[in-house]
Design goal:
single chain; 19 strands; alpha/beta; 13 helices; 397 residues
Length: 397
């Protein structure tokens, strides 16, 4: 899955190139509130423009559930993209996506022109990977480029189906970077290799924990999921998050770590609150000593030191999931301590999208990380060792 042809391996001069981007950006009153994903797509688009291709961009936005919803139109994206690119990005406003506007715009294209199709999820077939819509998308182009890692774990028309009807299908720079960092981190890491997992649920990270225990030297577990481990060890966790169905699983994973000689680190203390809010009463207690009516909201100061020490000499660190309720300033200390420790290490540091990406950016450490993944769900499936359909569909080198 890791050896795919990229935009550097093809010649697109005079060819029509369909590029699947991830323009799933947050919109408020028709204005884009975070344009990171647009900026991230620019290198691939600029490369194809410079090479003289005719560039047809497509993406989904939100969940229109197979029908046109004006508030989820990509029109604002075309406008902002024109400004960022410094050239017109013509918007093809077809509710059926591949309609008269798109066909006419494509027919008139000159080398280096760029157009953007309407939201691919206006079509119900998109998420079902239906043949008809896949064929319509393919009919517009000679070459397909997938640069949307955020949807790589889903088999949809615009990232997988279309490749059945186009001979040349390659990955863009953004996708290549994700494959290089996440793929190589998991399959060929420079050691010591440390993985840090947080977030609310053990259940959503089961396969990740299982897969990483075969690969890492140290596995750190924090966040809401750590209370399931704490309870499994016989500790008292008050009203903390816990998945009772996974208590035995937590014990099994600890046993697996021991058998494999992997260091498994759990919090030794917690910051707890008497209700779920920033201004609740707060105290720090040892692991497994949370009183009734109180809930674990963050790792404690002792744990921060232990986790920070564990990454000091690492050569590769992958982090997915915050250490506590980082949205509340009083419970962001643990997540910030980990972010700071990663910023201070010489290791290759890879942040696995989603909440951890948001956290490092909000806390101001984003530019200190080697790579921040653009796909939460996709990066998790990569860490699980699953094949991602959107990556697999591209031509092999």
């Amino acid at each position: 899955m890791l050896n795919k042809k990229s935009v550097d391996d093809i010649n697109v001069k005079g060819k029509k190139v369909l590029v699947r981007c991830d323009f799933n950006v947050p919109l408020q009153d028709g204005k884009i509130t975070d344009e990171n994903r647009l900026v991230a797509a620019l290198p691939t688009i600029k490369k194809l423009v410079a090479d003289g291709g005719k560039i047809i961009l497509c993406s989904h936005l939100g969940k229109p559930k197979g029908e046109p919803k004006p508030e989820l139109s990509l029109a604002p994206v075309a406008k902002r993209l024109s400004e960022l690119l410094g050239q017109e990005v013509k918007f093809a406003a077809d509710p059926e996506v591949v309609g008269p506007n798109a066909k006419a715009a494509v027919a008139e294209m000159k080398d280096g022109d760029v157009i953007l199709l309407e939201n691919t999820r206006y079509r119900a077939e998109e998420t079902k990977n239906g043949d008809e819509f896949s064929k319509e998308l393919a009919s517009l182009c000679d070459v397909f480029v997938n640069d949307a890692f955020g949807t790589a774990h889903r088999a949809h028309c615009s990232n997988v189906g279309v490749t059945k009807y186009v001979d040349t299908a390659v990955v863009g720079y953004l996708m290549q970077k994700e494959i290089d960092f996440l793929g190589n981190a998991v399959n060929n890491p420079e050691r010591p290799f440390v993985a840090i997992l947080g977030g609310a649920k053990v259940s959503s990270k089961i396969s990740v924990i299982n897969n990483l225990l075969d690969k890492v030297d140290t596995l750190i577990i924090g966040g809401g999921m750590s209370y399931t481990f704490s309870k499994a060890l016989g500790g008292h966790i008050g009203t903390s998050l816990c998945e009772d169905d996974y208590l035995q699983y937590a014990l099994d994973m600890m046993k697996k770590a021991e058998d494999k000689g992997v260091k498994l680190l759990l919090p030794v203390d917690n910051r707890i609150g008497d209700n779920f809010s920033n201004d609740c009463n707060i105290q720090v207690v040892k692991r497994g000593e949370i009183p009734d009516g109180w809930e674990g909201m963050d790792i404690g100061p002792e744990t921060e030191k232990i986790f920070a020490d564990a990454v000091k000499d690492a050569k590769t660190v992958v982090w997915n999931g915050p250490m506590g309720c980082f949205e509340m300033p009083n419970f962001a200390h643990g997540t910030e301590a980990v972010a700071k420790a990663l910023a201070d290490t010489d290791a290759t540091t890879i942040i696995g999208g989603g909440d951890s990406a948001a956290a490092v950016n909000i806390l101001g450490y984003g530019d200190k990380m080697t790579h921040i993944s653009t796909g939460g769900g996709a990066s998790l499936e990569f860490l699980e060792g699953k094949e991602l359909p959107g990556v697999a569909a591209a031509n092999d080198k």
